[in-house]
UniProtKB/TrEMBL annotation:
Spans annotated as Disordered: 39-60
InterPro entries tied to this protein: Tmem186, TMEM70/TMEM186/TMEM223
Protein's UniProt keywords contain Membrane: yes
Protein name: Transmembrane protein 186
Highest taxon, organism lineage: Eukaryota
The family this protein is said to belong to: Belongs to the TMEM186 family.
Organism: Aedes albopictus
Pfam families, A to Z: TMEM70 (PF06979)
Length: 218
């Protein structure tokens, strides 16, 4: 009886109730007392959750990028480059219609020729513009340690593309050939043959020191 009472935590049972229960049915009461003491002395599910070890959260590996250059006209450039396929479709649809109407003596053949000339000229102009502004840089970012550079440019179809390079892989401007118009300077890297165009004279340089560290001096 005393050994059973020692197993019970304080506050679970009173001594008087235990003795009274034991005198009524000694064997059954002892068994019941042992079961109840063991049940109440075991930690509950909530206590096990609170005392359990917590798994540490995974560290955040997403690096932050700081902008050092921005070309304000990049949005307009991308919009114009996306329009180059529309004149092709319009010309391909209107010229046969105009020719059919010309053979029906509704329109003259000259009208069909004018429509075709306008569509062809517009398409060639937009294609030439897309070629000259191919891989035009809109944003340049560096990481916190200024060891990597992210170049955001617009491709031939007017879609934004992002490329990340090590700063050590960027060819300095002093090693590049100068353009005839000096309107932009190319960006090359040692990893591949990709060439980007950056209009630095009409762009906004947010961090001159980081800009010169990435691309070098003239």
């Amino acid at each position: 009886m005393l050994s059973v009472l020692r197993l019970c935590p304080a506050g679970r049972f009173s001594i008087a109730n235990a003795v009274q229960l034991f005198h009524r049915t000694p064997a059954a009461s002892t068994t019941r007392l042992v079961q109840q003491c063991s049940t109440e002395s075991s930690p509950t599910q909530e206590e096990r959750v609170q005392t359990g070890t917590q798994t540490p959260a995974a560290p955040n590996t997403d690096g932050s990028w700081n902008p050092i250059f921005h070309f304000p006209g990049i949005v307009l450039t991308a919009s114009v480059k996306r329009l180059k396929m529309y004149p092709v479709g319009v010309t391909g649809a209107t010229v046969p219609i105009c020719l059919g109407l010309a053979y029906a003596d509704i329109f003259s053949v000259t009208t069909a020729q004018i429509c075709g000339s306008i569509g062809l000229t517009t398409t060639l102009t937009l294609l030439l513009f897309s070629y000259l502004t191919n891989n035009l840089v809109g944003y340049v970012y560096t990481d916190e340690e200024c060891k990597r550079v992210k170049i955001s440019y617009v491709d031939f179809n007017g879609k934004r593309q992002d490329r990340i390079h090590s700063i050590d892989d960027i060819v300095p401007r002093s090693e590049l050939g100068r353009s005839l118009l000096k309107f932009y300077f190319p960006i090359k890297n040692h990893d591949n043959g990709d060439v980007y165009r950056i209009v630095h004279k009409y762009g906004e340089v947010y961090n001159e020191q980081a800009f010169q560290k990435v691309f070098g001096r003239d």
